Amino acid sequence: MRTHRIAVIPGDGIGPEVVREGVKVLEAAAVRAGMFRLEFDWLPWNCSYYRRHGRMMPADGIEQLRTYDGIYLGAVGDPSVPDHVSVWQLILPIRKAFQQYVNLRPAKLLAGLESPLRHKEARDLDFVIVRENTEGEYSDIGGRLHPGTPVEMAVQTSVFTRYGIERVARYALSLARRRRGHVAVATKSNGLAHTMPYWDEVIRSCRVEFPDVDVSFYHVDALSTLFVLRPETLDVVLATNLFGDILSDLGAAVVGGLGVAPAGNINPEKRFPSMFEPVHGSAPDIAGKGIANPIAAIWSGAMMLEHLGHPEPAAEVVRAIEQVLAEGRVWTRDLGGTASTEEVGDAVVRAL
Amino acid sequence: MRTHRIAVIPGDGIGPEVVREGVKVLEAAAVRAGMFRLEFDWLPWNCSYYRRHGRMMPADGIEQLRTYDGIYLGAVGDPSVPDHVSVWQLILPIRKAFQQYVNLRPAKLLAGLESPLRHKEARDLDFVIVRENTEGEYSDIGGRLHPGTPVEMAVQTSVFTRYGIERVARYALSLARRRRGHVAVATKSNGLAHTMPYWDEVIRSCRVEFPDVDVSFYHVDALSTLFVLRPETLDVVLATNLFGDILSDLGAAVVGGLGVAPAGNINPEKRFPSMFEPVHGSAPDIAGKGIANPIAAIWSGAMMLEHLGHPEPAAEVVRAIEQVLAEGRVWTRDLGGTASTEEVGDAVVRAL
Ligand SMILES: CC(C)[C@H](C(=O)O)[C@@H](O)C(=O)O
Ligand SMILES: CC(C)[C@H](C(=O)O)[C@@H](O)C(=O)O
């Protein structure tokens, strides 16, 4: 029986609370499937680690992670550490070092949940965001000029490579082929006149390999209105790092909120470990209260099972989540219920 | 009696159709008010001008515009000209040359309209976006490297100056003082670790001058979910050029769509003419059919009247729009009706 070694990084705030439920569900799913074993190593890399060591993870953190089959992350960020420090020393280096160039974020209205959109139902809300995850606007190139003077300024340079665009575009195009055959590309070629026309051009050059996939380009401002007004027209949304970040939160909002939005940071070639984490952050305001919704984390865990080669157990976890949601009794506060984080985790295990 | 000279740039697509109704309403409002005269000069600067002259406006276009009291624009863009050419030669140079550093975009659910958000009504949807309009991500600094090779790339540099941030921040903070006293700042200081922490820092340094205004910082991804899930918490939203572009379309979507979303590109010191234009684009797909909604253009015209020092006539135009919408008989197709562009303009004139 194959054993998958998973690095668990619970992180900060509600991260540890939701990850605990995720691990519980994944263990139950593995036992039930009886085809593989999961071994979890818990790594205490977070903002309190930073306060003690002056860094978010050990100097050889990336080397340690490299030996695992998967990384399961809660959330990172605490008011005591500037956000750009915590994420640029933990999440972002992991995404970049392991060439997790696809950030895959399904936006699907689960059975039992109501969309905040008045006229939309489950059949209107089933799309997926493919976010470029290693370059683009999230560059570390920039700085300040003339500090302390009236002409002080800060600059930052976005970098888009043919290499980086092609690989994520091909992923999105082949994903669309296995779905409803449509890719909506987020661009802003009118305003950002150097990088975005290039992004469009490289994607156009890839699409010829996928003549059966229908590709439309939308300026990101107009596309964001489609998320609200006509989400039923969306299938696969292909976006840059920054636009994908914004659009995936918006996608989460229209299908019930961040409490139920999962994500995978994927290296499709499986040369390096992929990382699975809810779209939500560490939510310091509700941390420690045991009321955070663990569904996003549990679903992210199911995406990890699928990536590890176990689509059936993954689908069963999602079915169990849907059953719990549809029964409507064990809902956390964000969904209008009163259940605790742990009660939701237990209910999903029972539904399995 | 004072005469205001207005440069009208109808532009492309539905631009001329909606601007015609706007001018009609503004003329009626001026006659009714009897306190000022409006003189309109029509400038044929658009994509067909480009096809004839190889440029979107004459070489001295900015100099010509400088002599006007206001600029009234329809929309620019046609499939025959790359978007980044048309806007970088017309709208964007006007915004920058005339230091129209505030792009003011109200998101308000008008009487008679229903929000696409299930549980939200008019009292939940009344906020305004203050978008920085002259710098930031919309820079012309960038280019390509190694074209034609596998390591080809495109780069683009965002520039944020203390000067540029302070002036728009002060505008937003004083606007909040005249509204409900709250500013939500869109940032992304965790991901864009050079420019966005600087943006936050300069805004923090301005807020001390406005101790009575409450300021919250949100990452733009999280903020976009508030637009859908808790818009009632928003009053003034302060955003960079790019984030303001996205958020204002999203704001338009939650209050009934781009057909009813106005904008002003404002030079608050009135040293230079300001420009008023609907948020929507040229919509080539419905151009020439006479079915575009002119409300956004008419309302933008009302914002121009207010800027020219006529708040009462401006408010009357908005009241007339609301009356027409509330009656529900003369609605264009985007709102679910069958009225033509012209019929809506006529109805607003009658309601005046
Ligand atoms: C046409 C385009 C460059 C413009 C912008 O991005 O500013 C438009 O979307 C707008 O919002 O006015
Ligand atoms: C924490 C932050 C840097 C991150 C991002 O912007 O990528 C988060 O918002 C996400 O979407 O995973």
TrEMBL record, chains A, B:
It comes from the Bacteria. Residues 5-348 form the Isopropylmalate dehydrogenase-like domain. Belongs to the isocitrate and isopropylmalate dehydrogenases family. It comes from Kyrpidia tusciae (strain DSM 2912 / NBRC 15312 / T2). The keyword Manganese applies. It catalyses: (R)-malate + NAD(+) = pyruvate + CO2 + NADH. This is D-malate dehydrogenase (decarboxylating). One of its GO terms (molecular function) is D-malate dehydrogenase (decarboxylating) (NAD+) activity. Its EC number is 1.1.1.83. Its cofactor is Mg(2+); Mn(2+). It holds the Pfam family Iso_dh. Keywords: Manganese, Metal-binding, NAD, Oxidoreductase. SUPFAM superfamilies: Isocitrate/Isopropylmalate dehydrogenase-like. The keyword Manganese applies.
